[in-house]
Amino acid sequence: MSEYHWNEKKRVWTRYDSKGPRTAVLSANLPALTEPTPIESHPEIAMPTRTKALDQAIEEAILAGSAVMQKGETSAILSQKKPIRHGYHIFLSIITLGAWLTPYLIIAVARGDIRYRLTVDRWGHVWPAVA
């Protein structure tokens, strides 16, 4: 059975990880992702083109605030700071007359990382997955 699944509603191929179905973040062969014919039936993409697609996806992730932890030929592990809901914390700070500012500062400074992997497959599609 294929690791790729056709999503009829979105009309795109998806791949599952521990968080559910994921769509490709970038593709060197976009028509292969949007046609219902199996991905495996399309011709494979040359390694330099796949590497270029992965590099482009990494560049886009860096522009979105991620940092590269490790990079290989067909995959990379990236890290991004967990988001903070500032509106929620400001609301709590106002309600508690400033008493929430200390925990808010601790949360803002000590927030953890979200790590994820970008992997390029043989058909030039770059897929995200929780690392």
Shape: elongated
Helix % is: 25-40%
Q: Biggest β-sheet: count, sense, barrel?
A: 5 strands, antiparallel
Task: Specify Rg, calculated over alpha carbons.
Answer: 19 Å
Number of extended strands: 8
What is the mean predicted local confidence, pLDDT? 93
Output the helix-strand order: EEEEHHEEHHEE
Spatial order of strands in the largest sheet = 4-8-7-6-5
Category from helices, strands and their pairing: alpha+beta
Unreliable parts: none
Oligomeric state: single chain
Annotation field: number of helices: 4
Domains (count): 1
Distance between the termini: 23 Å
β-sheet strand percentage: 25-35%
Keywords: Membrane, Transmembrane, Transmembrane helix
Transmembrane segments: 88-110
Explain this structure.
Keywords: Membrane, Transmembrane, Transmembrane helix. The chain crosses the membrane at residues 88-110. The chain has one domain (4-130). It has helices spanning 30-34, 47-63, 86-95, 101-110; strands spanning 4-7, 12-17, 20-23, 26-27, 67-71, 75-81, 113-120, 125-130. The radius of gyration is 19 Å and the shape is elongated. The two termini are 23 Å apart. It is built from four helices and eight strands. The chain has a five-stranded antiparallel sheet, covered by helices on one side. A three-stranded antiparallel sheet has the order 1-2-3, with no helix packed on it. The mean pLDDT is 93. Helix content is 32%, strand content 32%. With 131 residues, the chain is of the alpha+beta class. The longest helix is centred in the middle third of the chain and has 17 residues, at 47-63.
